[in-house]
Write a structure and sequence with these properties.
Layout (H helix, E strand, L loop, with lengths): L1 H24 L6 H21 L1 H12 L5 H30 L1 H22 L8 H7 L3 H4 L1
Helix pairs in contact: 1-2, 1-3, 1-5, 2-3, 3-4, 4-5
Length: 146
Amino acid sequence: GRRPLLLTGISGIIISLLILGSSQSGMLPLSADVTSWVSVGALLLYVGAYQCSFGPISWLIVGEVFPLRVRGNAIALATLTNFASNFGVSLVLPTLQEKYGPSAMYFGFAVIGVWALVTINSIVPETKGKSLEDIEKLWVPSSLEE
């Protein structure tokens, strides 16, 4: 299902960010060579977790959860928000990383990941095997269905 993949993927992303933050801050008592390999492993975990979760599933869910009457506009707004957020992070990240350092950035992104995990767990429905009409009914309060 989509929810388990999202929840597992974001958990992997959080773990990889915590490992990266710890290795960059010197919290792990490792030699420079070992720290480099730990960082590479954490980056590979991050990429793999992202490619199994947020990468494809966010686009899939965006196409499923909006009612037909607003789907086109809603997908356009979601896409604009996604790309604007990516652009904003690209603009701000170098300055923040220079000011606070890489480990603080990794820990900060891990906190954002925890927030995403909680939000996904409480809001995002499972859509696997459901028709678009069934998914639309998930968002309508039961008092309005009658």
